[in-house]
What does this fold into?
Amino acid sequence: MCSHPTPTQTTGRPADSRAAHVVAAHPEQGWDLLCDGTIVFDDSGALLPDGRVLAPHRLPVDALAAAA
It folds into this structure.
């Protein structure tokens, strides 16, 4: 593991692109392992190295644009 600070210490978000980088990509399964031990999921959720869970960041339904 790298010595980057944990994501929530720096930004509160699961993936801090300025620090941690992907060391194992599994797009077929929908997740990536970052060098700091964080597992980032395609739905924007994450599992931190200490076992805490960051819920996915989803837009409210009314914020989505409707097709014309």
Notes: Strands lie at 22-26, 31-34, 39-41, 46-47, 53-54. The first strand starts at residue 22 and ends at 26. The first helix runs from residue 7 to 10. The chain has a mean pLDDT of 77.
